[in-house]
Amino acid sequence: MENITSERIHCLIIGSGPAGYTAAIYAARANLKPVLYQGIQPGGQLTITTEVENYPGYPDGVQGPEMMIHFEKQAARMGADIRYGLATKVDFSVRPYKVWIDEEKLLEADTVIISTGASAKWLGLESEQRLNGYGVSACAVCDGFFFRGKEVAIIGAGDTAAEEALYLSKLCSTVHMLIRRDQMRASKIMQERVQQTPNIRIYWNSEADEVLGESKVEGLRIRNTKTDALQTIPVSGFFVAIGHQPNSGIFKDWIDMDEAGYILTRPGTSKTNVEGVFAAGDVQDKIYRQAVTAAGSGCMAALDAERYLSALGH
Description:
Elements: E1 6-14, H1 18-29, E2 34-37, E3 51-52, E4 62-63, H2 64-77, E5 81-83, E6 87-91, E7 97-101, E8 105-114, E9 118-120, H3 126-130, E10 136-137, H4 140-143, E11 151-155, H5 159-169, E12 174-178, H6 188-195, E13 200-203, E14 206-212, E15 219-224, E16 230-233, E17 237-240, E18 244-246, E19 277-279, H7 291-312
Parallel strand pairs: 1-2, 1-8, 2-5, 8-19, 10-17, 11-12, 11-17, 12-13
Antiparallel strand pairs: 3-4, 6-7, 7-8, 9-18, 14-15, 15-16
């Protein structure tokens, strides 16, 4: 580790979803010479979604992976230095801040924008992964539209699951809601709303045993956790709403986070508790989690970084 060569970087962006690429576009235009490392999933969560119909400016919709290629090309055209690699360790004790890539390359950065995103938690079924994007989704707001008038199932017991079930109930004929235990974790008011919605059917003590269908979701096999009894329901969509995991682990010794690991930013800014380190996108947003809000916060982070550097006289 001792003889690693280091490279000095003016503005380092870690992560390559809508937040990271938008930050790169703005930082490049401000002549901050940004270097962006794409991380373990170049393009982020949008690369595992198919059709994106809610991003402004695409009247006919766009495929998630294609959209991320557009973002990347625009950042590159503006002059951002886009590289493949994963940040594996950081030291934010003194500026320039140290970031190690793939455990071997050391970067020293005047300012850092963290846009490492969050990953949806999955159940771990083979059929769930195989049909992901073909009726299996972790985002009702993104994909509910495709199931108008159809029957869908959702699994989850928290406020997000309740919100998504209510959202789906406005679009779908029936929403079958699976709760693993005999009670929900959601707040009382959300529980009441769900239970008072006539087309949401709740299955207590139930978990997904298998997603059925060859090339698209055609049904769901449910197992009762108390009796082991199996039943099959015909659905066209299956939504997994058991939470997200922010990709923030390597920053935990330096950056303030909430109990779930989301980075805390100063309200109305992208500023973290470490001066010159900013956070954008889903790694600091557990409320909206949309491509358009992530892009907006990436813009904020680049503008905050530019102001921070000009105050230092860079």
